[in-house]
């Protein structure tokens, strides 16, 4: 920005205090104009950065929230299986009715790594948030999520696949659900604490998170409806194609 200050001719001519006053007023007006221009730009830029920061933080907190809910559900399933196992041990007549319940309530995690990849690998997002401790806490949460899947969910699945026999009374009672439940509880406790710390660190209230969750759920609902339309269209096209192929065969056009 090139700003030139013009000394009044009257001042050059040495017209006295009146000319000096006009010059000072002109200088003051120019200074105020410069300050307002740069100050306004700085305010707008800062507001934009704060908005971007908040959006990234809420996106991450939403992902942590959903992941934690999934872990809590998996942990609840393990406690239920442990209860059924105990009931079978105490009353063998319950074996036939509960053995299949155990198989259909195995713990699993439902999540995607999209937000984790965006946040963890994008230095611009990390810089925008500007909180190293928050970044570390989130990374630790995601690390626990991965370990939970591998050490609890995947390990149980592998044991079921290799050595579990749902029709064997001994096999059902030998199933190491107590160990997995203890392991699950340990992971869950750590993840809940990190989630709470992240909320506190970034001043995210439950009310704010609820509003964001509802907004995201509406978006997900719209996406789901759109996907249903696409699936219906594909199904319809498949039916038409099948009928066309049958007609061609019937008319011996192939």
Characterise this structure:
The protein is built from nine helices and no strands. The relative contact order is 0.09. Helix 2 packs antiparallel against helix 3 (95-104), helix 2 packs antiparallel against helix 8 (177-201) and helix 6 runs antiparallel to helix 8. It is mainly alpha-helical and 254 residues long. The protein has helices spanning 9-12, 17-90, 95-104, 114-121, 123-129, 132-163, 169-174, 177-201, 206-250.
Order of helices and strands: HHHHHHHHH
Work out the strand percent.
Answer: under 5%
Sum up the overall morphology in one term: flat
Termini Cα gap:
76 Å
Q: What's the quaternary structure here?
A: single chain
The radius of gyration is 33 Å
Low-confidence stretches: none
Helix content: over 70%
Major beta sheet summary: none
Helical region count?
Answer: 9
Would you count the extended β strands for me? 0
Mean pLDDT, to the nearest integer, reads 81
Structural class by sheet pairing and helices: mainly alpha
